Amino acid sequence: MLVDVVVVGGGQAGLAVGYWLQRHHRSFVILDRAAEVGAAWRNRWDSLRLFTPAGFSHLPGLQFPGPPSAAPTKDEMADYLAAYARHFALPVELGTAVDSVEQSGEQLLVTATDGRGWLARDVIVATGAHTRPHIPGFAGDLDPAIVQLHSSGYRRAAQVPVGAVLVIGAGNSGAEIAADLAAAGREVVLSGRDVGHIPQLGPWTYPLMRLLGRPGAALARRGLRGGAEPLGRIRAGELEAAGIARAPRTVGARGGLPLLADGSIAQVAAVVWCTGLRPDYRFLRLPVLDDAGRLIHRRGITDWPGLYVVGLPHQSSITSHLVGGVGTDARHVVRHLAHRQTPRQPARRLARRLSRSPATS
Question: What residue ranges define each of the domains in the chain, with the CATH number in brackets?
Answer without folding.
Answer: 2-131+279-343 (3.50.50.60), 133-195+231-273 (3.50.50.60)
